[in-house]
Amino acid sequence: MNLSPNRQRGLTLISLVFILGLIGFFVLLTLKIVPIYLDHGKVKSALEALKATPDLATKGEFEIRDSLNKRFNINYVYDVKQDDIKVVKHGNYVKVDIEYETVVKLVGNLSALAEFHDTIEAGQE
Q1: For the segment 15-41, what is each residue's pLDDT rounded down to a tens digit?
Q2: What do you get for the CA distance between the two ends of the chain, in Å?
Q3: Predicted TM-score (pTM) of this structure
């Protein structure tokens, strides 16, 4: 059998299908996971905007939660629930802690879980 390098070129059908399947899987993974991190960026920006509020240390817990909920509604953030937000207030010191997780179904019974934890502090303790 004469197997010269000039005669063996290209991919077989099986290797082409395998490569296209890998590319498709990573594209699917990217399309499912990137929106999670975009939403997390919206949560972080809402917390930073809340921290930039001049009289944050004098506000009550209800006002802080209401302000965050309004920011989340404007930015279409639905992953953060009320139970995920913890507000600690001592005098003029305020700590807002958001810890939440998001599960995205990929294919069949395969899912991706992302956990986030963000904190801001304002005022003097």
Answers
A1: 889 999 999 999 999 999 999 999 999
A2: 84
A3: 0.78
